[in-house]
């Protein structure tokens, strides 16, 4: 997601601190910077935590709850199945495929393990989709096909990367979950979920605008230094952390906000 799902061109691994090295890092550069603000220290189970991109996965699963909550009648079993399907397809498969494409998170998870997670995640999502078709009808089939294509084409940057754009990200991981969750409840679409999908599209586009420069700062910047002089003459120094703070602060706040909004809708409709 511009975030985890936004796979990028292979990026050089950031320099890591070395107690045996006497060389000092350039001013403004923080050695051993994490590839994401939620990333755990590399190795073991911590790599799997990082691979899940927890705040972004929760962010996009919130769209599933919002879409389902707009249905006239909310079926809890269908909602849970849709959430699980998107977790398997996005939280696991898409992120594993993303990590295979250039190792942007710098995990030590083996390539065979990432391939296995991708295949298992997609297979599980499709199986749940088949169950959904049995329940609501053939109207859900196009969503299954589009979802499968989006995960593979976006994260593997197929078709010349035509889907791997800011708009593609916002449509695939913002609008699409809303529409799919509503269709999984009702077997059709309506004006309300279309409007909600447009809102999710806009929010995901904003996410991309924030996360793209944040990733550049964390994963690709070698040196960041400078200053900002205010009208009253006060000088503020600019470094990596000064530039990252507002970007990642906004991403944190929005991810929590959407999760809480989705939770409130679930409680209101199911409570």
Describe, in plain words, how this protein is organized in 3D:
By secondary structure, the chain is mainly α. It has one domain. The protein has eight helices and two strands. It has helices spanning 45-52, 54-69, 76-100, 111-136, 141-155, 166-186, 191-220, 240-270; strands spanning 226-229, 235-238. Strands 1-2 form a two-stranded antiparallel sheet. Helix 2 runs parallel beside helix 8 (240-270). It is globular, with a radius of gyration of 20 Å. Residues 7-32 have low confidence and may be disordered.
Give the helix/strand layout:
Layout: H1 45-52, H2 54-69, H3 76-100, H4 111-136, H5 141-155, H6 166-186, H7 191-220, E1 226-229, E2 235-238, H8 240-270
Antiparallel strand pairs: 1-2
Helix pairs in contact: 2-3, 2-6, 2-8, 3-4, 3-5, 3-6, 5-6, 6-7, 7-8
Index terms:
single chain; 271 residues; mainly alpha; two-stranded antiparallel ribbon; 8 helices; 3% strand; globular
- Cα gyration radius (Å): 20 Å
Helix and strand run: HHHHHHHEEH
Helix content: 55-70%
The overall pLDDT, averaged over residues, is: 89
Judged by helices, strands and strand pairing, the structural class is mainly alpha
DSSP strand tally: 2
Number of domains: 1
Shape: globular
In whole angstroms, how far apart are the ends?
Answer: 31 Å
The largest sheet, given as strand count, sense and whether it forms a barrel, is: 2 strands, antiparallel
Strand content: under 5%
Reading side by side through the largest sheet, how are the strands ordered?
A: 1-2
Number of helices in the DSSP assignment? 8
List segments where confidence is low: pLDDT < 50 over at least 5 consecutive residues: 7-32
